[in-house]
Each structure stands twice: as structure tokens, then as C-alpha cells.
Design a protein that fits this description.
Layout: H1 13-21, E1 26-30, H2 34-42, E2 47-50, H3 54-57, H4 69-81, E3 87-91, H5 100-114, E4 118-120, H6 128-136, E5 141-146, H7 152-155, H8 165-181, E6 185-189, H9 193-202, E7 207-210, E8 218-221, H10 223-227, H11 243-260, H12 274-280, H13 285-288, H14 292-297
Parallel strand pairs: 1-2, 1-8, 2-3, 3-4, 4-5, 5-6, 6-7, 7-8
Helix pairs in contact: 2-4, 4-5, 5-6, 6-8
Amino acid sequence: MSTTPAGPGRLTILDIARMRADGERIAMLTAYDFPTAQLVDEAGLPAILVGDSLGQVLLGYDTTVRVTMEEMLHHTKAVVRGTRRAMIVGDMPFLSYTTPEDALANAGRFLREAGAQAVKVEGGVPAARIIDTLVKAGIPVMGHIGLTPQAINTLGKVRVQGRSREQARALLHDALAVQEAGAFAVVVELVPEQLAAAITARLRIPTIGIGAGAGCAGQIQVITDVLGLGSFVPRHARPYADLRGTILAAAIAYRADVEAGVFPGDAQSTRMDEAVLDEVLGRATVDRTGTADAVAGGIPLDGDL
């Protein structure tokens, strides 16, 4: 049974908590622009993350580290404008929350300027102080543990986290620290499914998995992976469409039609009254007389300029 309220208004962290309590799976996607956000919202997803993944899948950066606050706010505003029901979570970019003061200032911009309802912060135990500061200031926070893309320069490469006893214990501590700091949910990325399930069972807040198995309370995927827009599909993703193939075929067909002169056709063109056109081009009787009034009273022809 859905927990979506019957009346107007956005879902909140209370609705997400009810979904977790009722055992309802929480489906999330990323979105970065107005038209995509409209569709995801219409599909009924309860929450949308404006992820800093936009740096790679939308802006062409090599990592998420290069994404700026201004870029995040720009895209979050577009997603908010395109939605009515989904709760919007803005992803705090690299170095935007290194101190409690910076975190408050930048998270506040997500809510005040962009219209998001929550922010996401990467990190476990080290991020607990930041999460606590934001929550106490009235800013809902989603945590993020496991693979944290903003730390890619430290991690070295994208790989599963928590396979060893030490790493697994550290991740469990991270999850508990995020919860106790006041986060309303936590993303668990690239973690063995058994460990993710164990973490989920030990938390009161929902876990949102990505590459962490089906034992999490919810799932999140990057929208371009779901739509099949990229040339590479991560193992944890499942394309539900092939928009890359569709768009490529459409662009090739369009080019061919333009080159063949069959686009635009009658259906894509408009016509005007031929008598009016004759007057404009100087083909009317009064123009052919060559009188001064014809030039002075009408549009000059090329020869008159």
C-alpha cells in the first residue's frame, strides 16, 4: 500500500520514514533537468536525488570532484521546477562541507535558493559532526557510505567496499554514526549484499542501495544508466530503455532527410497568400509600373537599396 498522501504537496522525510516502517520499498532516481524531472515525478517516485554524478553524465567531467556549488544549484532549481510531489535531495559537492560553517552556508543555499527539501553528504564517522550540525539547524540530511565518489582520488579506483573484516566493521560503524548524527536515510554504495542487508537490519533509518543488493530498504540509480543513454553500463545498473540507440537513430535519420531535401515537408511548413507575396517582391501591377509611389510606399527591392 502506498504512503503517498492523497492531498497536494511534496513528500517529506516523514513519508520516507513511514515507507521504511511499513516495509514499502523506496525507489529513487537521479535527475538533473526540468523535462526528466517531470517524467520521474509523474512516474510516482517518492524522492529524486540531484546527484553530483551530473558532472560525469551531463557535463563530461572525468570525476565528480570538479562539480561546483553553482552547477549543483543550477540543476537543482531545474529539477524542483519540474516536480510537484517528489522530495528533492541536493548533493553537496566536493569541499562544500569541510567545516560546519561551510556546510551550513552551502546546505542552506540548496533549501533557500534551489528549493530542495534535503541534502546528501558523503562520509560516515568523519561526517557525523557535519550531519549533526545541519540537522540541528533544521536541514534534513541523507548520508552516504561505502564507495564515496568524491574520495576517488584517495580510493584510487571504483571498487566494492567492505569485503574484509576491518572494512566491514568500519562500514557498520559509519552507518551507525550517520544514523546517530540525525540523518533520515543513508545511501549504501558498492557494498556486498550480505553486509548491506546486515546494516539495514541494524538501522532505524532506511538504507538506499546502489550496487548493494536487494536487502536495502530502497534503491537509487543514475537516470542515464536506467535510460540506456551511456555507452557503458555499470554492473549494478539495469537499462530499462535504449535511448542512446533511439536518439542516435533519430539524429541519423534527421540528417539524411535534410541532406535529401525531404525535411521540412508540407506538414512542417506554412504558406502565405500569393498575392501578398507578389506585393512584397514587387510582382504586383503597381510595382511593375515603376512609379515613384510604388517604391516610396512599399518595401524597397534589392535593386533599390
